[in-house]
Automatic annotation (TrEMBL):
One GO cellular component term: cytoplasm
InterPro entries: Acyl_CoA_acyltransferase, GNAT_dom, Ribosomal_N-acetyltransferase
Gene Ontology molecular function terms on file: protein N-terminal-serine acetyltransferase activity; protein-N-terminal-alanine acetyltransferase activity
Protein name in the entry: RimJ/RimL family protein N-acetyltransferase
Length: 181
């Protein structure tokens, strides 16, 4: 599979609206996206500014996904990844995470780590993170509101620059709690 990543430009707002409103995003806070909100955010620079960059994920002539990098002026940026339903389950998410990790660490030398979160029930993304060198660092109970009103656990993952450079994985010490009493 040959994927390309093409930076979003503001003149592509109609394509962005079509992409985001043409799918249901089951593991996002807003599974159904409002087109007017996308247009408003695009006009405000939400998708491309000093803090954020958005990239189309392209295979052949098809736009198969979207990556939005956020907090790029911080030492710990975040990302949002969306793969079209017809292309899910084909390994595109993992390839995109590998790409975005390399892109961020190469383009932003001040970045120390990259974080990502997902819902506990998003098993596909929870498999992608460790395969791409990310480590589970957090489990937030009832922290992610679902569109159905149900609160879901949120799981946090991150990769450190030093681990990415060395190809190793540094696992947190999960047994460092002080003794009670």
């Amino acid at each position: 599979m040959q994927l390309r990543y093409r930076r979003f430009v503001p003149t592509e707002v109609d394509a962005l609206v079509d992409f985001l409103t043409g799918e249901t995003w089951p593991f996002h806070v807003q599974p159904v996206v409002d087109g007017d909100a996308v247009r408003r955010r695009a006009s405000e620079g939400y998708y491309d500014n000093d803090e954020a960059r958005t990239f189309w994920i392209v295979e052949g002539d098809d736009t198969v996904g979207l990556v939005r990098l956020m907090d790029l002026t911080d030492d710990t940026p975040l990302f949002d990844l969306r793969i079209r339903a017809a292309y899910r389950g084909r390994g595109i998410g993992g390839l995109a995470v590998v790409w975005l990790t390399g892109y961020v660490f190469d383009e932003f030398p001040h970045v120390h780590r990259i974080e990502g979160t997902t819902r506990r029930d998003n098993s596909a993304m929870r498999r992608v993170f460790p395969r791409c060198g990310y480590v589970k660092e957090a489990h937030y109970r009832d922290a992610w509101p679902g569109a159905d009103g149900i609160l879901h656990d949120s799981i946090g993952y991150a990769i450190l620059r030093r681990d990415w450079v060395s190809g190793t994985v540094t696992v947190p010490d999960w047994h460092d709690e002080p003794t009670v009493g």
